[in-house]
Amino acid sequence: MNIYVSGLSYRINDDDLRQLFEEYGEITSAKVITDRETGRSRGFGFVEMANNEEAQRAIDELTGAEYDGKVISVSPAKPKTDKPRNGGGFNRERRGGFDRGSRGGSGNRGERRDY
């Protein structure tokens, strides 16, 4: 089971996160998410545990616990969605106020004018 852990101290690294969960069972992976540019922790991470029952026990016992001076939140991770990171939406190419097929001019094409 993949577990989402938030509220982590910015000093926590992957090894610290692994050690926190090891007493509950076998850890497949532990990763603190860091900022791409600065390398600094973003205050949350993910722990993958091999056994779902052990993972649920860790979630139950660690939610609301204090770790390195901060109260952490622990929950099952939500699976990634296939949504584009730019917000999605239909036909994102259109950015301006004009339709690509428009040639400009007045909107009265084909109507007779009485001058």
Quick summary:
The chain is α+β, with helices and mostly antiparallel strands and 115 residues long. 17% of the residues lie in helices and 26% in strands.
Give the SSE string.
EHEEHEEE
The end-to-end span amounts to: 76 Å
Query: Under CATH, the topology of the domain at 2-76 is which?
Result: Alpha-Beta Plaits
Strand content: 25-35%
The Cα radius of gyration reads 26 Å
* Main pleated-sheet profile: 4 strands, antiparallel
CATH architecture name of the domain at 2-76: 2-Layer Sandwich
Unreliable stretches, pLDDT < 50, 5 or more residues? none
- Gross morphology: elongated
Q: What is the tally of helical segments?
A: 2
Give the CATH class of the domain at 2-76. Alpha Beta
**Total number of β-strand segments?**
6
Tell me the strand order in the biggest sheet: 2-3-1-6
Look at the structure and name the CATH superfamily of the domain at 2-76.
RRM (RNA recognition motif) domain
Helix content: 10-25%
Structural class: alpha+beta
Mean pLDDT over all positions? 85
Q: How does this model look, in words?
A:
With 115 residues, this protein is an alpha+beta fold. It has a domain at 2-76: RRM (RNA recognition motif) domain (Alpha-Beta Plaits, 2-Layer Sandwich), CATH 3.30.70.330. Helix content is 17%, strand content 26%. The chain has two helices and six strands. The strands form two sheets. Strands 2-3-1-6 form a four-stranded antiparallel sheet, with helices on one face. A two-stranded antiparallel sheet has the order 4-5. Strand 4 (66-67) and strand 5 (70-71) form a beta hairpin. The longest helix has 11 residues, at 52-62. It is elongated and about 90 Å long.
